[in-house]
Amino acid sequence: MNKELPRLEVCLSPALLHLYDTKGAVVVIIDVFRATSTIAAALHNGAKCVIPVAAVAECIELGQRIPDSITAGERDGKVAEGLQYGNSPAEYPAEFVKGKTLVLTTTNGTRLLHMVKDADTIITGSFLNLSVVCDYLINSGKNVLLGCAAWKDRFNLEDTLFAGAVVNRIQEHFSVNCDSARAANALYKQSGGKDFIHFLRDSSHYRRLSAYGLQGDMEYCATPDLHPVVPVLRGAELVVYGK
Amino acid sequence: MNKELPRLEVCLSPALLHLYDTKGAVVVIIDVFRATSTIAAALHNGAKCVIPVAAVAECIELGQRIPDSITAGERDGKVAEGLQYGNSPAEYPAEFVKGKTLVLTTTNGTRLLHMVKDADTIITGSFLNLSVVCDYLINSGKNVLLGCAAWKDRFNLEDTLFAGAVVNRIQEHFSVNCDSARAANALYKQSGGKDFIHFLRDSSHYRRLSAYGLQGDMEYCATPDLHPVVPVLRGAELVVYGK
User: Fold this and answer.
1) Which of A56, A145, B1, B38 has most Cβ atoms within 10 angstroms of its Cβ?
2) What is the DSSP string of chain B?
3) What residues in A contact B19, CB-CB < 8 Å?
């Protein structure tokens, strides 16, 4: 019996999403610097859920409505006006975030998440939860699209490198006929498959965030498996899968 | 005196072209399998010019109007109905193509070429003219956008690998702050910087064209510097630069 393997593809930018069939698939939203890293950290540290929203105004409005909520988000590397906290994964230790609802506004990651309409399941991925995301995808038995949030629709290195790390680990369980997946995997291999931050230091995003003094954040985001939870979208909320 | 270097960027798909400022720049159209390879071969072998057109009907019409012309183009790996020849670079030896006008219809490459509106200059690139294209770009002193034709807007490996080969050779003469350029260069390094066809054998396009028995064409297209001319767009015609 030759069981057909599910499909594994990589979408390098939200501007290319329309080229992929996400119906019935698991879509992994990837925004390594820093939205999906912060989401993994907050949920692993006990946040009740994370609500990703696009606009600062919506973030403020939800924060006023939801008890025990934290509003967070940055614009140009600073806490956005009217919000309480930033977009740094290290800002959300257990003693602060446990039991709370984190209302998080980010630009690229949230936009992509809201663009996916007909997937079976939407989860978020980052180096912080690399292994559990891979296990989840293998166990799902479904077609998978790894969706890079990119930067204002521009290809970025960090999201693609993470996609490559996933492809490299799970490809034998899937049918891969996608040049983006092959290229992401080649990038991963070129990076040496470890010490991701070294490879990412030349990226545009690393340079941009470094100008805001956020090198520590990026080192944090490049640490594999520090926050081993799978954030899964239920309605408007990201919650820990299996909990 | 600290002279500012011109910008070097890579656009991975026509669907991302709007993200780049091509005004005053040199844009290199890249469609390795096989449009820009065939263009280099035909012009190096003495064709008067190559006229790239999008539609088969337009190709036929121009062929009827222009003396000493050849109409060529494929759909699904076969010579398109109503045209005389295919899209194989090996089909255009000097004894056949010398002095002729090649009216060539291709899908991805031609489309991208016609999408670029405000560039200073449009040239075409392929492994067959890699070194002369690199020399041209260095000497131009202008901003450069390497534009991958891709496959129906999907990222492809062969065009990106060629872009990476160019980035690798010319980057020291440019300011490179573009993750696509970094990734293309990393792919090039991952390929070992030679024996391109070995690296490309797993690509979607190689597999698709192999099903049509076109492996020989692809080996040909992956041979560096076999046809050292720079095709440059003058009006609707691609001609040899400097001639």
Assistant:
1) B38
2) --PPPPBEEEE--GGGGGGS--TT-EEEEE-TTTHHHHHHHHHHTT-SEEEEES-HHHHHHHHHHSTTEEEEEEETTEEPTT-SB-S-GGG--HHHHTT-EEEEE-SHHHHHHHH--S-SEEEEE-GGGHHHHHHHHHHH-S-EEEEE--BTTB--HHHHHHHHHHHHHHGGGSB---HHHHHHHHHHHHTTTS-HHHHHTTSHHHHHHHTTT-HHHHHHHTSTTSS---EEEETTEEEETT-
3) 15, 152-154
Confidence of residue A1 (pLDDT cuts 50, 70, 90): very low
User: Is B153 in contact with A19 (Cβ distance < 8 A)?
Assistant: yes
| Tens of pLDDT, residues A49-91 | 999 999 999 999 999 999 999 999 988 778 999 999 999 999 9
Please compute the mean of the pLDDT values over residues B102-112 and round it to a whole number.
92
| Of B19, B191, B204, Cβ closest to residue A153 | B19
Q: How far apart are the CA of A133 and the nearest CA of chain B, in angstroms?
A: 24
Query: Could you tell me the pLDDT band of residue A33, with boundaries at 50, 70 and 90?
Result: very high
**Which residues are paired to A90 by β-bridges?**
none
Q: Which of B155, B199, B206 to mutate to test the interface with A (most CBs of A within 10 A)?
A: B155
Domains of chain B and any CATH numbers:
8-240 (3.90.1560.10)
Give A190→chain B minimum CA distance, Å.
Answer: 6
Instruction: List chain A residues with CB under 8 Å of B160.
Output: 179, 183
Residues A222-243: what's their mean pLDDT? 96
- Mean pLDDT of the region A226-241: 98
CA–CA distances in Å: residue A96 to residues A41, A68, B216: 12, 11, 63
Burial class (CB in 10 A: 0-12, 13-18, 19+), A229: buried
pTM listed for this prediction: 0.96
- Predicted complex: ipTM over 0.90: yes
C-alpha A1 chain-centroid distance: 36
Shortest alpha-carbon distance between residue B55 and chain A (Å) = 22
Instruction: Measure in Å the smallest separation between the Cα of B216 and chain A Cα atoms.
Output: 21
